[in-house]
Design a protein that fits this description.
Elements (H helix, E strand, L loop, with lengths): L6 E2 L10 E6 L20 H13 L3 E7 L39 E5 L16 H7 L4 E7 L1 H14 L3 E10 L7 H11 L3 E3 L8 H11 L6
Parallel strand pairs: 1-7, 2-3, 2-5, 3-4, 5-6, 6-7
Helix pairs in contact: 3-4
The structure holds zinc ion.
Zinc ion (ZN) binds next to loops.
């Protein structure tokens, strides 16, 4: 039943002065081996660095969100929540992965910072929408983890806030707690008005694409 998204396989056609890249939750605890691992999230490093360079080269804004929880956050099982303890503010697990380059002038927003409030979305309680509007940003290109949780919530909030949203489908990864969760979340985002973009078949770097392609398809079973 998967709907094939209308993926544009070309370099982003950025209106740089109005565009920003938002990388969601690329933190150690969400990587394989981490406290709340997203399978294969570490495969995203080269793709994310590619997109970051693209935006930087155009002097477009690059933003990162991070889960940044107090030690007794309500989402933790130890506090009656759903998830294992993860991304406690100031710990190594909460750090952005060093394999993904953070530009000097990047914006980093912290979410889920209040004990009693969960925040999957990078817009929730962060002031991000206001900050982006202040800078004249109208287009958001979104990547990161996890597709069906924080990426989904961030994309839907961004659309709600009136941004023109593109999901970088070759630079997201899902938890897949139930098989197909990632694909279903993507369908939901597209139905809500997001566009999908993939760098999987670029015109400019065929050799790099050949390396990246097998990992970049979102149409794997399950
Ligand atoms: Zn969290």
């Amino acid at each position: 039943m998967a709907v094939t998204p209308d993926i544009e396989s070309r370099e982003p056609q950025l209106r740089h002065e109005r565009a920003a890249l938002l990388v969601v939750d690329m933190q150690h605890d969400f990587m394989p081996g981490g406290a709340l691992a997203v399978p294969r999230a570490d495969e995203l490093f080269p793709m994310l660095n590619h997109y970051i360079a693209e935006f930087e080269n155009g002097r477009a804004l690059v933003c990162f969100s991070r889960d940044w929880h107090p030690p007794d956050h309500c989402s933790f099982r130890t506090a009656g929540g759903r998830w294992p303890v993860h991304c406690v503010a100031g710990t190594a697990g909460a750090e952005l992965v060093h394999q993904v380059r953070v530009p000097k002038d990047a914006i980093i927003v912290s979410k889920g910072t209040e004990r009693a409030r969960e925040a999957y979305s990078a817009f929730e309680g962060t002031g991000l929408a206001h900050l982006l509007r202040q800078r004249g940003i109208a287009e958001l290109w979104i990547a990161g983890v996890a597709t069906e949780y924080c990426v989904r919530a961030t994309v839907l909030d961004a659309l709600q806030a009136g941004f023109d949203v593109t999901v970088l489908v070759d630079a997201v990864r899902a938890v897949e707690g139930s098989p197909g969760d990632g694909a279903r979340a993507l369908e939901e985002m597209l139905a809500a008005g997001a566009k999908a973009h993939s760098w999987a078949r670029p015109r400019r770097s065929a050799r790099r694409a050949a390396v990246i392609l097998p990992a970049s398809t979102d149409e794997r079973p399950g």
